[in-house]
Amino acid sequence: MINQVLLVLYILGILLLSLKLRQGTFSGFVVSDRNVMHPAVIGIAYMAAYFSAASFLGGGGYGLIAGLPWVIWGVFFHVAFACLAFIIAPKIWMFSQKYDAKTVPQLLERRYDSQGGKVLLAGIMLLMYTIYLVAIFKGCANLFQGLLGITYVQGLLIAVAIVALYYVIGGLPAIIWISFLQGLIMLVGAVLLYTGLISSGGGLAIWDMVPADILSMTGAAVPWQKTFGMAFAISLGLLALPDLLIMLFSAKDKRVVRFAGIYGPISITIYAICIFSLGVMVHGVFSSEQLAPFMTNPDGLIPFLATSLLPRGFDSIVLLAAISAAMSTMSAIVLVTTTALTSDILRYLRPATPDDKVLRITRVVGVIIIIVSAFFAMDVPQMIVPLVSVSMGVIACCVFIPLIFGLYWDRGTSIGFVASLVASFGSVVLWQFFGNPLIHPVFIGLICGTVAYLGGSLASPRPAPVAEME
């Protein structure tokens, strides 16, 4: 009963805050009129939007079969890329200001003077983010099922209703502030689970109880190469996922972005250590018979831990933490996916469409995308982590190469931009189906995309000089 009451209060709080932050303009809806002035809000919202139910459920459970390599590589890459992301964040903010960009495809279009590249990137985002949403909906439904005692379908319907309502009402301002609050809940939930497991295992002595094969860096049931690739591919998103970058666009000034670089990496480090360690440490507390059901479905491990380890009431906090992880990511993804379709593609086809009409279409299309993703989540055979690593990896590859080169190399051209998109997307998809499974497709995408970008840029005329920014 406590879980149900807290969930109702949580939903009411989200809806009230969304109503308070309701936006009537397209600019306010998609970039909060660039007026967010609190570094902690952007930094922690960045963390919350990045870590989804896929991380809370999939990331926590994946260590059960992948062993210690998942902890080592997962934490290392997330911390390293989080620090790097906020080092370059002020320059990304300055570019968004310079080009008055409201979306990532729009930023790259204006940097490279390429409408075709903008539409192509928007189409890739629309496809891959929809797949990513399927994985998150799966995790969210599993969570509701495990902690509320309802069916998987009922869990899906609850998730659809919550995300659709506060997306339609509030836009990016609501998403950022609610993600900030959700991020705080996520940190509390992650720490509770971690300390609860440590306490049950007799403190740090828990590591002495973990079997040697689980602690081997060669990998347990999953080869270390696959774990290394998945950790790299997923954490690369910290540098290039559009649903994170728009939060930087919304900052009032460069100072806000710089100081957000304190809160973001610290919160990401705490969360990654706590969550990614759980799947390994459970071997030091529970018997192989107790863990056997989760060896084939690691995504169910976290609800089991919450109900097994924590006193009644505290498991409700974990419920809210996992729900927060799902809601914060889904709402941001729906926003950037929808604006990619309406602002980037619709405006390309019909440039004269007024902002108020684009805003109405953006709200309606967002709800449609939510429903479509939830429908495909009705039957998802894969574990969450592999599904997320591929979908997130494709988007990260396609954005990362033209974004980083665009920030620091003025020789890049529109031909190089488009060539990198085609090469990155095509190579990742082909490698996923036909390549060596021990080498993650994202590595291939980065190599092919970079070669195509450099080749296309150097083979085409030098672009007009880009004005220097302070």
Automatic annotation (TrEMBL):
Q: Which InterPro entries match?
A: Na/Glc_symporter_sf, Na/solute_symporter, Sodium:Solute_Symporter
Q: Name one Pfam family in it.
A: SSF
Q: Where does the protein principally reside?
A: membrane
Which keywords are on file for this protein?
Membrane, Transmembrane, Transmembrane helix, Transport
> According to the lineage, what is the superkingdom?
Archaea
- Any single GO CC term annotated in Swiss-Prot or TrEMBL for this entry: plasma membrane
> What GO molecular function terms would the record report?
pantothenate transmembrane transporter activity
Could you tell me the membrane topology recorded for this protein?
A: Multi-pass membrane protein
Protein's cellular compartments: Membrane
The residues that cross the membrane are 38-58, 70-95, 115-135, 147-169, 175-197, 230-250, 262-286, 317-341, 361-378, 384-408, 415-434, 440-459
Q: Which family does it belong to?
A: Belongs to the sodium:solute symporter (SSF) (TC 2.A.21) family.
**Record-given protein name:** Pantothenate:Na+ symporter
Recorded source organism is: Methanococcoides methylutens MM1
